[in-house]
Design brief:
The protein is α/β, with parallel strands linked by helices. Helix 5 runs parallel beside helix 7 and helix 7 packs parallel to helix 8. It starts with a strand and ends with a strand. 40% of the residues are buried.
Length: 410
């Protein structure tokens, strides 16, 4: 298999500061298996316009450098976590007016996980960067062409770094309304989608050639003396992902962003809530690419995650007599000896990729538990639903891997 040996120290300092070198998100006391199951929020689509309406007048961002095996220079922009905290402080109502926990409590909680409440999506976790490197090894520099006409879903997206990586070449290519790319981002918390996910998507657009017309017109537009908000008067930052800055969110900017989605044939949707209630058919049907990272840390959530991964994957129908041979053939191609071999995965009818740490200490989940949930043979004698194969691995420090799941046809 293909292995990387770079150390976590090579990843940028802001990520290291946020994550440290812990082997897993720190769970709250409520995440132990001895506690009763929590009641999860049902899945629902959050309209893009609703998320845009919740954006602040401005937010700050910083560069995120991602090491790639290809040695290509990849730097993405992401919203600063401290800036999201300031937004909540400024907008949070008095605690006496809300019977439930305040949103700001989740940012300041000593735990990164509060099952059924907050699942750590505000931070950038290491395996999301691993997934970017794996996708880069698969698609190379021709990503935009390969994903035309496809449906992509990222589960537990949080900061959505893998999808930001995919958006960069989409917005850098020639605009085409016929590209017909469906990009769906799912996180348990609507709060995460509002504070982090959509701002990061807007940054991916702004830092690309797709925003050039807006940036050019905004820099030459006359000042509106009747505007008392002050937002339109704020200067636009340079479209340079290597530099931190602040971006003013104006009606003109959001209108240009939405127009670019149409111009580039990009159908963007956001979903919040539990995996068990995510309606794949209502979302438009199965996906050609299903991505998830750092989502297998709790064993009690594995059944719903595995079920959704299978339901969401566009598995082609296979005759029963050919199913075993087809599965064996597809997985045999995953004995990877070098980076370039990952490019062969472009020809797969669908990709279901799961990035995770080998073991999540103190939480109970890990790679072995996930593989068992997919391949069966556990204590409950679950049926074999598919095959799991490691296609990417980090061997130094906290061990991490990326698995491809090949589902049995039904």
């Amino acid at each position: 298999m293909f292995k990387f040996n770079f150390d976590f120290d090579e990843i940028d300092e802001p990520v290291a500061d946020a994550l440290g070198t812990a082997a897993a998100p720190e769970p709250s006391a409520a995440s132990g298996s001895s506690h009763p199951p929590v009641r999860e929020d049902p899945s629902k689509e959050i309209p893009v316009q609703s998320l845009i309406g919740a954006l602040p007048h401005t937010f700050s961002f910083s560069p995120l450098a991602i090491p790639l095996a290809s040695k290509r220079n990849l730097i993405l922009s992401r919203r600063d976590l401290f800036d999201a905290r300031f937004q909540l402080i400024a907008t949070e109502p008095d605690s006496g007016t809300d019977a439930g926990p305040a949103d700001i409590d989740f940012l300041d909680a000593p735990s990164d996980l509060v099952p059924g409440v907050y699942e750590g999506g505000l931070k950038t976790w290491e395996c999301s960067l691993d997934l970017v490197d794996c996708l880069d090894s698969i698609y190379g520099t021709d990503i935009a062409q390969h994903i035309k006409g496809t449906r992509i879903l990222e589960l537990g997206c949080g900061t959505a770094v893998p999808c930001l990586y995919l958006l960069h070449p989409i917005f850098s290519a020639e605009p085409s309304a016929s590209s017909n790319i469906h990009l769906h981002l799912q996180d348990y918390n609507e709060l995460v989608l509002r504070l982090i996910t959509l701002p990061n998507v807007i940054l991916a657009w702004y830092m690309s050639p797709a925003s050039l017309a807006f940036r050019s017109s905004a820099s030459t537009a006359p000042t509106d003396d009747t505007d008392t908000s002050g937002a339109d008067a704020e200067p636009l930052p340079l479209a340079d992902a290597t530099e931190p800055g602040e971006i003013p969110i104006t009606p003109a900017l959001t209108a240009a962003f939405l127009q670019s989605l149409d111009d580039y044939g990009l159908h963007l949707k956001f979903f919040a809530g539990s995996w068990s209630t995510f309606d794949v058919e209502k979302a438009g049907g199965p996906y050609h690419t299903v991505l998830t990272s750092e989502t297998i840390y709790r064993t009690d959530s594995l059944p719903s995650l595995v079920d959704l991964l299978q339901r969401a994957s566009a598995v082609p129908p296979t005759r029963s007599e050919d199913a075993t041979a087809a599965l064996s053939n597809s997985t045999s191609q995953l004995s990877i000896s070098d980076q370039t071999s990952l490019h062969h995965l472009v020809g797969e009818p669908y990709l279901c990729l799961v990035a995770a740490k080998l073991v999540y200490f103190g939480v109970g989940g890990g790679v072995n538990e996930f593989a068992q949930a997919v391949e069966g043979g556990g204590e409950q004698s679950d049926p074999r639903r598919g095959t799991v194969r490691t296609i990417w691995e980090r061997t130094h420090g906290v061990k991490r891997s990326i698995m491809q799941v090949k589902w049995n046809s039904v």
